[in-house]
Amino acid sequence: MIDAKALRSFCLDFNGATEEFPFPRHPEVSTFKVGGKIFALTTLDARPLTVSLKCDPELAERLRAAHPEVVPGYHLNKRHWNTVSLTGGLADRLVRDMIEDSYDLVVASLPRAQRLLLDWPGERR
């Protein structure tokens, strides 16, 4: 099971990833960003531990249908975001894949120059 420390570490392992706390009224909310855009949101000391992740709309629907731990994004665009419970029965590999997919979706939306600087595998020079 992925805990808060592992979640933070995995999110920060991506090229160009940063952790920020941009919500003054909710200073406990961690946002993980690349190129200034959020790819993951969480409250690392919350119980149960959850993370909200960007997702392709069709895949988001399939994940929600297949896994009760995956629900529409809390306080987010429910078409493009899922909130994932990390205390349930999801395999660590699936959670890591969802985080990586979220990062990739955000990086793909960045200008080409930024993608090149990140040495993103989806961008070849």
TrEMBL record:
<dbReference type="InterPro" id="IPR058532">
    <property type="entry name" value="YjbR/MT2646/Rv2570-like"/>
</dbReference>
<keyword id="KW-0238">DNA-binding</keyword>
<dbReference type="InterPro" id="IPR007351">
    <property type="entry name" value="YjbR"/>
</dbReference>
<dbReference type="Pfam" id="PF04237">
    <property type="entry name" value="YjbR"/>
</dbReference>
<dbReference type="InterPro" id="IPR038056">
    <property type="entry name" value="YjbR-like_sf"/>
</dbReference>
<dbReference type="GO" id="GO:0003677">
    <property type="term" value="F:DNA binding"/>
</dbReference>
<protein>
    <submittedName>
        <fullName>DNA-binding protein</fullName>
    </submittedName>
</protein>
